[in-house]
């Protein structure tokens, strides 16, 4: 096996410009790139790669076209362990499902930003195990536009939503902070959808996905001839979103000079494109997101204090999933209902054995990672329900019998589903609830009856009918 110093990326692509872009990008991470222009050539190269120098494959779906999934299967037969990422211009979930079932490790929709591509490549080739099942997929479902789609009842999460909803009805800018995958983009879209500007333009800018000069032109615009390569005038998003909302993801990745320039625009209400002799009056609302606490970046001199002061009038912090573990059952069933609506997939229930695994993991990729793991499991599940066996890497990581104690403290100790995903009989569930209540209230039967909303005589009759010992 090749060492990390000699790792080789095979790029199956017949577009010279994209090949140069990917090769240059991969070189930043220490990859050499082997470009092949057809599926046949790729198979020949892989078959001849006896030393295993090729460590990953990036396939542009355009090259084999409708035969992309067949090519993926052929590559998998030759190299079952090599990570395989597919680039495609299609947004069809059906193609994603077919590609994954054929053996694709990840699925990226073009145009793909540099950071997104590198993150997918980095995640797919990470050495630690388990790998594929738990890595967040690069693509996800389209973000919903209302607060009703933000599932969860944990107090810190509901507090964040309430604060965001209040801010949405106002007129000021807002800053949304939280770890990657907690739903910041979704929340910003929901805020726009609930604001008085909901019917006006909304654009999203990912500040980490493009070079500083490109970001400057995209946001502020430029005049023809403003710099080398500026062959035409470009209207910036600040101008085109006049009256609407501009969302900045990874605002901390914006160059400090551009941060100060953005602060000046928001303070004055006037944007002047690069190279222009005059500016334009605008009215734009900004929602910005960061994976970090921005005040810490300001203190370290890594973020514009002026921009922070403007954006931080409203700050919303989305908690990590490990801070709201009690929301996992509700999130799981919500995501499964969404996944079941996708072409090529079916509706799945989930057995308690599977929920136990999901609740025992700490989810470093947060809600986005949970969604991706459920999507992968649903793709490969032929039965009606996802069970513990649907998450083999998670089972391997956590062991055969993860502790369910925390779940029981949250009131989830009563099993609702059998191992095949069907509901248990009502009398069995009722018996478990009564046992749980007797244990929780330490055998104080009057309190048990009161909390269950039944009389003492009814409780004792049920104990007799269900064969429950009072000391259960």
UniProtKB/TrEMBL annotation:
Major localization listed first in the record, in broad terms: cytoplasm
Modified residues annotated as 4-aspartylphosphate in this record: 60
Name of protein: DNA-binding transcriptional regulator NtrC
Response regulatory domain span: 8-125
Cellular-component GO terms for this entry: cytoplasm
Claim: Repressor is one of the keywords in the record: yes
GO molecular function, a single term: ATP binding
PROSITE patterns given in the database record: RESPONSE_REGULATORY (PS50110), SIGMA54_INTERACT_3 (PS00688), SIGMA54_INTERACT_4 (PS50045)
InterPro entries, A to Z: AAA+_ATPase (IPR003593), AAA_lid_NorR (IPR058031), CheY-like_superfamily (IPR011006), Homeodomain-like_sf (IPR009057), HTH_Fis (IPR002197), P-loop_NTPase (IPR027417), Sig_transdc_resp-reg_receiver (IPR001789), Sigma_54_int (IPR002078)
Residue span(s) of domain Sigma-54 factor interaction: 150-379
Cellular location(s): Cytoplasm
Any single GO BP term: phosphorelay signal transduction system
Species per Swiss-Prot/TrEMBL record: Qipengyuania soli
Function: Member of the two-component regulatory system NtrB/NtrC, which controls expression of the nitrogen-regulated (ntr) genes in response to nitrogen limitation. Phosphorylated NtrC binds directly to DNA and stimulates the formation of open promoter-sigma54-RNA polymerase complexes.
Superkingdom, taxonomy of origin: Bacteria
Pfam families: AAA_lid_14, HTH_8, Response_reg, Sigma54_activat
Keyword entries, A-Z: Activator, ATP-binding, Cytoplasm, DNA-binding, Nitrogen fixation, Nucleotide-binding, Phosphoprotein, Repressor, Transcription, Transcription regulation, Two-component regulatory system
